[in-house]
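Dear H.,

Thanks for agreeing to be a second pair of eyes. The structure we're designing against is below in token form, covering all 405 positions.
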């Protein structure tokens, strides 16, 4: 066992752009597997082959590859010469000492220059396995699956396959900035954008100086959880409590929630344009109709405050669907921890659910919008996270606002 054969699915549909996606995936695999015993990574037709050192850490390699977006599945494999006798001998060596009552051979002749077609490879190898193990062939529900792949100049034999997370490799689709609240929804939204190939930076608005740091601690934990999926992350923490107080003193109660959201969007847009981030869009965990600020009218009004796209990957999902995905990725238990969220600060009892752009513009006449945006930017602290290791660690924390373009 000296190879890992990695398969991708969606990337294969990219045709002329496929090499760029494959190169990004190769680079991400190399970074994710740093320090685990990888000798070489090379792209072949339809697959990526990872050469391992004799002391490679397969359990850790498997764990990390399950978090690399773009991978459909992968298998620990043996290399064989492109000869049916050599392939059969390698299969018999691979199953030596294993106990199984049924099996299936999945053969793939990726290079049609090989003279034996895939079904015949499976029949010949399967006959040898039956003779050696006395196990039965079961093509529907085998206890053991033997994979044989014939490519140019070589072949690979693997036992079983491990599912990858699918999607596109992070970095292939550009950078976005996700508003990370600490609740159940926003971490799932960020994860889904990573799965679509985006590098995701995070921004969190907290209620300082009127609330404690529990929401900040929770968001730091969420950023650490998400970082292994994209290898490095940047988290902006914005003190929003004083900005909220100023809005409260100047604006009628029903409009305050929408104005909070519009101000967050403006500050986030400025951070997206920063020289460190250069994000092309904002991302939120909003789901249509879930709360008062997420009615279609209020979403329209909120988005009108900024000029860059606002992506909402959860817009058509209900709470049960979002919760299930949060549990799948491991963020749910963090998100439900109690905290002091700025969304709970200075909230009116009956917020407007159908605000319009003209009435919100009229309400904002009482505010010095540019000054409030500057105030938010001047309060920013930045934390960065890095992970080729699965446990993400905070690399540094700064206290100065980022430079903006």
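And this is the sequence the design step returned. I haven't edited it by hand at all.
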């Amino acid at each position: 066992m000296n190879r890992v054969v990695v398969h991708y699915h969606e990337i294969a549909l990219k045709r002329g752009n496929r090499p760029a996606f494959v190169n990004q995936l190769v680079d991400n695999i190399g970074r994710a597997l740093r320090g685990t015993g990888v000798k070489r990574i090379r792209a072949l037709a339809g697959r990526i082959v990872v050469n391992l050192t004799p002391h490679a850490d397969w359990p850790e390699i498997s764990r990390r590859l399950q978090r690399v977006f773009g991978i459909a599945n992968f298998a620990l494999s043996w290399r064989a010469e492109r000869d049916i006798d050599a392939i059969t001998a390698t299969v018999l060596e691979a199953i030596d000492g294993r106990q199984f009552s049924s099996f299936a051979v999945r053969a793939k002749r990726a290079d049609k220059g090989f003279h034996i077609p895939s079904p015949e490879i499976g029949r010949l190898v399967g006959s040898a396995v039956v003779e050696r193990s006395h196990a039965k062939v079961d093509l529907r529900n085998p206890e053991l699956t033997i994979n044989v792949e014939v490519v140019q100049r070589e072949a690979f034999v693997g036992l079983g396959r491990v599912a990858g997370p699918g999607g596109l490799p992070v970095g292939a689709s550009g950078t976005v900035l996700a508003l990370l609240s600490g609740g159940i929804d926003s971490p799932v939204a960020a994860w889904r954008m990573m799965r679509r190939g985006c590098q995701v930076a995070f921004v969190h608005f907290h209620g300082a100086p009127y609330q404690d740091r529990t929401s900040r601690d929770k968001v730091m934990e969420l950023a650490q959880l998400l970082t292994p999926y994209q290898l490095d992350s940047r988290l902006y923490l914005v003190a929003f409590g004083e900005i909220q107080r100023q809005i409260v003193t100047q604006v009628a109660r029903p409009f305050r929630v929408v104005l909070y959201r519009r101000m967050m969007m403006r500050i986030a847009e400025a951070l997206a344009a920063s020289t460190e981030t250069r994000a092309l869009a904002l991302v939120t965990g909003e789901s249509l109709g879930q709360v008062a600020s997420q009615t279609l009218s209020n979403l329209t009004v909120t988005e009108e405050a900024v000029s860059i796209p606002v992506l909402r990957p959860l817009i058509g999902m209900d709470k049960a669907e979002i919760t299930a995905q949060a549990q799948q990725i491991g963020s749910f238990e963090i998100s439900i921890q109690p905290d002091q969220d700025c969304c709970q600060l200075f909230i009116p009892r009956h917020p407007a659910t159908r605000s319009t752009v003209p009435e919100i513009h009229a309400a904002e006449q009482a505010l010095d919008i540019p000054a409030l945006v500057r105030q938010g930017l001047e309060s920013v602290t930045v934390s960065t996270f890095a992970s080729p290791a699965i446990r993400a660690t905070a690399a540094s924390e700064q206290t100065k606002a980022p430079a903006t373009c």
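Two observations from my side: Residues 390-405 have pLDDT under 50 and may be disordered. The CA atoms of residues 180 and 394 lie 17 Å apart.

Warmly,
E.
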